[in-house]
Each structure stands twice: as C-alpha cells, then as structure tokens.
C-alpha cells in the first residue's frame, strides 16, 4: 500500500476496521489449512491476494472462497478441503515467487487450483510489460485445468482491459479455465463494497463466487446472508 494509503487507513474508521481483518483472517486460514491438510476429501488450493482471504467480508468464510465452497459442497459425495495460500497485498510476483512454490511443496496433487491476482498490480502500477511477463509465468506453472480469474472492474480501466485480454487469450492455450470476474462485477456499487470503499463486501464477493462457479460449471452459490446474520464458519472442509 502507498504512503497515502497508509495515512488514509489510519484516519478513516472504515479503513481501520477492514485493515484489522488482515492478521485475523490470515491466522484463521492458517489454522484451517492445517486441518485441511490432515483431513480427507477432494483438495482445493487457493492462490491470490486479500480477496481470496475474504478481506472486507464480515467473516473470513464469507469471501468468495467460502461462498464457492458452499456451492462445491452442495451435493458432493465428500466435503471439499481448502488450503488457502493467498496473502493480503499480494501482486502477481508474489504468486510466482512464493505461492506457486508453496503449492508445489505441499507434496500432494490438488483436485482444484484457483488463482485470482492482479488487482494490486493495477493499484500499485506494476509496469505493464512486467505484469504481462509475470502473468505468463504464472499460467505456465499452474497445473492443467486450474482456474485463473480476470481482474475485476473498478480499477485502472485501460490497464485492466489489457491484462484481461492477455488472460482470456492465453489461459485456454495453457490448459487453464478462465473465471471472468470482470464480467460479473461492476456498477451499481451500492451495497457491494466493504467499509473501506475498496474491497468487496459479502454481496460483492457473491459476484466473484458466481464467476468461479460458472467456470467450474457448478450451481451459482446462494446469495450471501446479510452482514447482520451470524457469520458462516469454515471447519474441516465442510460448509
């Protein structure tokens, strides 16, 4: 995050509230990852940034990962296990340099790998040629039939469009499936954003989950409950 962003985060109550989720959600996911790795059932490994952590949602299980998990488990013979290797603030370089090696080090073959990255590269203005190089490197290393997401709406329009053109054109040739998050997100924004005005809230994450569900050809996840309802909790791979 930029210096200006850090200052704003310190002043704006909504930003402070959302930022406070970062360490807490990371700890929750770390604990859940350990349970998932010791369990049984199909394994889903998640790569990405704060959106994969669920930052902005009222609980860590109400981000797009938790919502999609409910759709995957609907009618499944055995509940899915989730190992979430994402990191808040991650850019494409983090997936290439840290998360993919962590995936490879798991010592097991995942039944599903998903990756949603690039939004922070738009915010922090990673040079376009470098970002294209990093995205190509990621696509080359993702296991076959992994799902990679386009970058959502609401960021740098021209640069987002260029990155998404690359993903849509080259991911299928690399044996990957595209989840078109861009096509599922966008205005009207009312009710879709968290209190920091940047991250999705539970309703916004419903759109993300729908994009992944479409790519995986599973039923669209049910609408996320109101923030005032008791939060959904992720356990040992069960919804």
From the structure above, extract its key features:
11 helices, Rossmann fold, five-stranded parallel beta sheet, alpha/beta, 239 residues, globular, single chain
Structure, explained:
With 239 residues, the chain is α/β, with parallel strands linked by helices. The protein has a single domain, classed as 3-Layer(aba) Sandwich (Rossmann fold), CATH 3.40.50.1110. The protein is built from 11 helices and 5 strands; from the N terminus they run αααβααβαβααβαβαα. β4 (147-149), α9 (157-170) and β5 (177-179) form a beta-alpha-beta unit. α1 crosses α2 (13-19) and α5 (64-73) packs across α11. The longest helix is centred in the N-terminal third of the chain and has 18 residues, at 21-38. The radius of gyration is 17 Å and the shape is globular.
CATH level-four homologous superfamily name: SGNH hydrolase
Identify the strand order in the major beta sheet.
2-1-3-4-5
Query: How many strand segments?
Result: 5
Structural class label: alpha/beta
Q: Tell me, what is the CATH class?
A: Alpha Beta
Tally the helices: what do you get?
Answer: 11
Radius of gyration of CA atoms, rounded to a whole number: 17 Å
Question: Quick check: average pLDDT?
Answer: 89
**Helix-strand string:** HHHEHHEHEHHEHEHH
Which residues form runs of ≥5 with pLDDT under 50?
A: 1-5, 225-239
Q: How would a crystallographer describe the biggest sheet?
A: 5 strands, parallel
Reported by name, the CATH topology is Rossmann fold
Q: What is the terminal separation in angstroms?
A: 33 Å
Question: How would the global form be characterised?
Answer: globular
Q: Which architecture per CATH?
A: 3-Layer(aba) Sandwich
* Percent helix: 40-55%
Q: Please indicate the count of domains.
A: 1
Portion in strands: 5-15%
